[in-house]
Specification:
Helix content is 46%, strand content 24%. It has four helices and five strands.
């Protein structure tokens, strides 16, 4: 499975490039649909590129987590190429980011 239930209210997903990216994010979306009290941290350390389908899935998860469930979604460990996609598309303004997994977990657990 592409994710780990870190604590009662925190899910940590480790993503990699497609086709695994799509499958993993679909599993995380299904989990969040069933578990509405879950914050999500997505680790992008295994992702080297994003396509429009990946971005659509991320936006779907954001809507589910942040708007429908009123929970938090944070992305971490993003490389320069993927960060460039976030900047060009303006997604850097709507997602929350952390430098790495430990700081992302800490900030979600502390409610920062």
């Amino acid at each position: 499975m592409a994710f780990e239930q870190w604590s009662e209210n925190l899910l940590v997903g480790e993503l990699s490039d497609d086709p695994q990216f799509t499958d993993d994010l679909t599993a995380i979306i299904e989990h969040c649909t069933d578990n509405t009290r879950t914050d999500v941290l997505l680790d992008f350390s295994g992702v080297s590129h994003l396509n429009s389908s990946n971005i659509a899935k991320l936006l779907k998860l954001r809507k589910l987590s942040m708007i429908s469930n009123e929970r938090r979604l944070k992305l971490c460990s993003i490389n320069r190429h993927v960060w460039g996609v976030f900047l060009v598309t303006g997604l850097d303004k709507i997602f929350e980011f952390a430098d790495d997994k430990p700081s992302g977990i800490a900030s979600l657990q502390l409610g920062e």
